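Bit of a strange request maybe. I'm writing a small parser for structure token strings and I need a real example to test against, not something I typed by hand. Could someone generate the tokens for this chain?
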Amino acid sequence: MEWGCLDTENAGMISTSGKEKKCMNLNAVPGDKVRFVAPPHHQHDLFKAGENAERLLKKGQVYTVKVTHSYDFFTFVELKEFSNKLFYATDFEDAFELLKELRFGFNI
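Reply from user aminoacidic:
Good idea to test on real output. This should exercise your parser:
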């Protein structure tokens, strides 16, 4: 099942199943930190972004944004750690949310 994404900072919402979650800032700048939180992808992956994530990334790990690419209904992120590989932006959340949880002991 694929999760949707509610980007509260940029008022963007993507929903494929009716369930929304926070995601990374879709206008992230190079150097921003993001955490991989994606569920498995169960659909044909035309862009290989889901396959890249499942093969290369570790759930819960923090990565560094190199650049984001927005095209119609898709926003991709390229990570500094994996140059020239695309990932779905909806598979990440901003890492500063994690820092708040760890520092203050609650979800924002």
